[in-house]
Every structure is written in structure tokens, then in C-alpha cells.
Amino acid sequence: MRRLLVGLTAVSVLAAAATACGSSDDGGGPDAGAASGGGTTTVKLGLIPIVDVAPVYLGQRKGFYAEHGLKLSITTAQGGAAIVPGVVSGQFQFGFSNMTSLMIAQTNDVPVRAVANGISSTGVPGKDFNALVVKKGSPLKSPKQLEGKKVAINTLKNINETGVRQSVRKAGGDPDKVKFVELAFDQMPAALDSGRIDAAGVVEPATATVRSQGGEVIASPMVDIAPDLTVAMYFTSTRYAQRNPDVVKRFQQATAESLAYADAHPDEVREIVTTYTKIPATVLEQVTLPKWPAEANRSSIETLAELGRQDGLFTTEPDLDELLP
User: Fold this and answer.
1) Predicted confidence (pLDDT) per residue in 209-230, tens digit
2) 3-state secondary structure the chain
């Protein structure tokens, strides 16, 4: 919890700095986007180099953003927690983050607003991009058996911990007895195989890697949270949204087209992922893709927020009317 509070304090400081720096301009400055030739606006977008954001790269290739007068300048980061302060400070105009990170930010008075859907769970237990896995031959067959065991998640006190906790809870176990450890997704398969951890909450392509090692899926945490859970969204700062509504609208429209195209063309999704990640094509063939619906599932986000409150992730209740588009 101390690490979470330190991180959120840093985000709040950046938010305050961004507000102070922009208090007397008319929408220009570092967070306004830059106009280029032909009426095109260049916007900086912070992304995580994972399968989830493939629709943006695909939409960029297909010209959907260009058709809406936008040119994307993409910068990658390790996770949504790093992208949030970048958006608030004006380093990026838009970013990609999971819903828990966005709700944590908002409840700590960090001015963010979701503007376009990102990804959702497949809603199919055992066939989701996210999985709770154990190594080949493990005696652990149910999340209930994880009491007292060491379970790896990528970030403590965030969406993946909520998911694993819910899987343990639904199986009749006590999630407070699980020993959570923080580990990068790409390090989880090796740690699991070597026995350094007992289980892991993985996402693709780590999910496919664990399966290739003979590992077994014992739960689908995102599915256990809610059917068709909205896991992540694209967002901006409230200041940028208020001062640049036309740019935000064009970004929303282009992203919606990109999501629809990606959902209908999985082969093109797998191909474009090889252009911005180091995931081998042979591994991508085994990857379970998320869903990319055009609209967020509000009821699923409400459930995620309730579980976050239950597990102490929020200091106050998230205001979804203010956060969601």
C-alpha cells in the first residue's frame, strides 16, 4: 500500500503542475496537439506495447485517423500507471490504461477522463486473454488452494490483484491469505516453471507461453469479475477534453472505427502486433485475443469499482459519470 500511495502522490503533483502551467492559456501549450499541414492535428499517444492496443496501430495503417484529420505520435510505456501522469502533465494528449488505474487516479483528484473504449474480456472462462495459471504437474487445481501460496501479478493493488482476489473468493477461499508478489508479465512463465512462484495472473502473450510449457489455467480472473468486463480504455485529461472537444471527438470516431476493424480482422491484428512488439509470429498464432467492442460496459465497470472499494484500492467512491464518456 505504501508503494501505491507514493505513486499516487507523484501523479497528483504532476496534475497540479499541469493545471498551474495552463491556467492562463487558451488551449495551446504542451497538451493542445500540434497542427500540421492540410489541417491535420498531431496528437501524442501513450501506449503499452501489448496486444491490447493493436487496433490503434491497425487504424493508423488503414488511414482511419488520417481520415479524421489526426496524425498519431506514439510513445510506449511499461504500464497505465506511468501513462496517467504523462497525460495529466501534457506529455501526451491521450493514453491507454486499465480501468482500475483510472479510477484510482480520479479518486485521488487526478483530472482524467475516459474518451474511447479499449478492450474487454472475451467473457469465456478458460478462453480469455487473462488467466490464473499454475505450472505443469502442479497439485493446485482451484483458486481456493492459493491460500498461503505465492501468486505473481504485474502491479500490486490494481486490476489484476482484484481479478485474482475475485477468483479466490468465488472458489470459496480467503483472498487475504494469498501472498501476492509483483513481477513483470514477461518474467512470469520462467518464474512459474522454476518454482519461484506457485501461480501467476498472466495476460497474453505470457498466457500462451505458459500453455506451451504445459501449464494449466485454473481460473479466468477478468471473467470472474464480470461478464464481458471492460478492462481498459483510452483517456485524456479533463483540461484537454474541455479545451479541445473537436480533437477528442475525432479521436473517438477514429478509434471506434479501428476497434470495429480489429474485432473483425483477427489475422491482421496478429500481423500488426509483430511490428511494435518482439512477440514471435509463432507465439501470436496461439494467443487468445481480447474483444474490442465499440462501447464500454458500464455495469461491469461498476462491479470492478465495488470490488476495488471492498479490497481497499479507493479512498473515495469513483464518480463514473465524470470518468466515462
Assistant:
1) 999 999 999 999 999 999 899 9
2) CHHHHHHHHHHHHHHHHHHHHCCCCCCCCCCCCEEEHHHEEEEEEEECCCHHHHHHHHHHHHCHHHHCCEEEEEEECCCHHHHHHHHHHCCCCEEEEEHHHHHHHHHCCCCEEEEEEEEECCCCCCCCCEEEEECCCCCCCCHHHHCCCEEEECCCCCHHHHHHHHHHHHCCCCHHHCEEEECCHHHHHHHHHHCCCCEEEEECCHHHHHHHCCCEEEECHHHHHCCCCEEEEEEEEHHHHHHCHHHHHHHHHHHHHHHHHHHHCHHHHHHHHCCCCCCCHHHHCCCCCCECCCCCCHHHHHHHHHHHHHCCCCCCCCCHHHHCC
